[in-house]
């Protein structure tokens, strides 16, 4: 599944084109030939058709503790990526508990706290604050509204989801590194007419989409071994201690539902093998006594 | 509205990073410093968190006659961009009328003709074949299924839409160049409970999304002057000669609905002025006698 990489590389090279195809200041322009040779056909078509700019279909936001692929259409993240380990999960920073508008985003494409007022949804951070208590900047940045999707409050986020996040941190502590993608899904259901429909609520003046499901895709490294685990969780009331097994899926299932290709830097055999593996049981699943489930 | 450009540039530089941060073959590595200086923080975060790859949120497809931003989640284009002019609209090439799977796309993310079987929808090319009758390769490439969204057949595509496309070509013939973005929208409606919901059908094994609306955004150049015109058309039965005025919108309206920023290479004052202008009347609107409305 390297195909998507090629696409992203093309986005990359072509979005750069107006910049990199001119000679960088103080350079001999050697790069021009190098990049140009790779994408000459694309560059020619770009120059012909895309004269007045290239409408982006998303934004990438780089934070100290996470990377966010923000969907400008739904006003929620496609995914948020984190790398969790004992080092990052150390404590120390103080929470401010203040959400903030993300000024990196075009005002037309971002959510605001007002959008949530009068709804049944809270501002659910996809990169949890409790994952970043070791670094004040990283912690602050979890409060950007670009890291937020609407989540049912008491009956989902404050119960099941914070427990699930605490469990994820526990998996991270047992590993050398845990790479986690947390994201939003909009999945179809069968309608009364037997056809399939995607249906989701949008809230507020900015029409922020309420996901039908959330996913987590994880890669665990431990003693040089790699394992994957993936979940698709329906966005509906769930008990705090609801078992995780019913939500276990193959990584391939998330990829297909989300239109995403994870871990494409792994070799193809490794990737295929790990991503297609049928989920068996959830990794050793106990929330440590020391962690308060209210701490998300 | 330059914010999205920055994001795309970041996608660009970071997606390149594994390649451009190594020294290109035979070069002194001058580019490394140049790019590195621009994105050092992002690069550091990338290296830390995104070790195993970067899930793309779309694909860019370069064709002789159009550029397509393909949405891997909905399996239809976000948009297709064309530059139409008298030169491109000349005739000569022969149609084959054979749709083809796009092998550039990951099999998990692409539509197939089978998805349309037994539905009320036809394979609606967003870059119309009749826009590319001057070049055999360009014409062939309009038949890729990546250029397709489901459209109601007789009551929409074969009536209103082909007429609208013919009108668009007429605007191109009256201009020096007409830059056109044609794309898909998924817009909310009020539900019985007074809340807003997005609802759309998905068809076939690949769950191809049926857009609720289509848009066209146009920039016309004529004698050194630039004008814009934009439409949002509901995807429902429409008469061949349905007037276009009710579908006229500001470019800003499409941007907000689609999460896209058009024409960001224009200077900010020009862009703001042209995109915020309230639509008055449709550009001189007559389909030429010589063009068959069945020819889309």
What does this molecule look like?
2 copies of one chain form a homodimer. Chain A has 296 residues and is an alpha+beta fold. In chain A, 27% of the residues lie in helices and 25% in strands. The first copy, chain A, is built from 7 helices and 12 strands. In chain A, the strands form 3 sheets. The first copy, chain A, has a 7-stranded antiparallel β-sheet with strand order 1-2-3-6-10-11-12. The first copy, chain A, is globular and about 55 Å long. Residues 1-38 and 292-296 of chain A have low confidence and may be disordered. Chains A and B meet through helix 1, helix 2, helix 3, strand 1 and strand 2 of A and helix 1, helix 2, helix 3, strand 1 and strand 2 of B.
């Amino acid at each position: 599944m390297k195909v998507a990489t090629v696409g992203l590389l093309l986005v990359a090279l072509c979005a750069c084109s107006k910049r990199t195809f001119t000679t960088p200041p103080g350079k001999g322009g050697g790069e021009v030939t190098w990049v140009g040779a790779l994408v000459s056909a694309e560059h020619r078509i770009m120059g012909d058709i895309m004269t007045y700019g290239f409408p982006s279909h998303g934004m990438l936001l780089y934070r100290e503790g996470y990377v966010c692929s923000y969907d400008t259409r739904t006003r929620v993240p496609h995914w948020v990526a984190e790398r969790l380990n004992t080092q990052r999960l150390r404590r120390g920073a103080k929470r401010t508990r203040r959400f903030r508008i993300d000024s990196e985003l075009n005002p037309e494409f971002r959510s605001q706290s007002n959008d949530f007022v009068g709804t049944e949804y809270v501002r659910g951070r996809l990169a949890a604050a409790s994952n970043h208590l070791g670094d004040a900047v990283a912690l602050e940045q979890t409060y950007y509204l670009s890291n937020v999707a609407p989540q049912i409050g008491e009956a989902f986020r404050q119960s099941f989801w914070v427990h699930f996040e605490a469990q994820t941190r526990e998996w991270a502590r047992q590993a050398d590194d845990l790479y986690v993608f947390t994201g939003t899904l909009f999945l179809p259901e069968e309608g009364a007419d037997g056809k399939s429909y995607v249906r989701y609520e949008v809230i507020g003046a900015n029409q922020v989409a309420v996901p039908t499901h959330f996913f987590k895709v994880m890669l665990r490294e431990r003693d040089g071994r790699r394992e994957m685990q993936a979940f698709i969780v329906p966005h509906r009331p769930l008990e705090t201690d609801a078992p995780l097994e019913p939500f276990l899926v193959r990584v391939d299932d998330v990829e297909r539902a989300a239109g995403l290709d994870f871990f494409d830097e792994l070799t193809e055999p490794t990737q295929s093998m790990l991503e297609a593996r049928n989920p068996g049981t959830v990794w050793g699943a106990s929330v440590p006594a020391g962690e308060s489930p209210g701490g998300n």
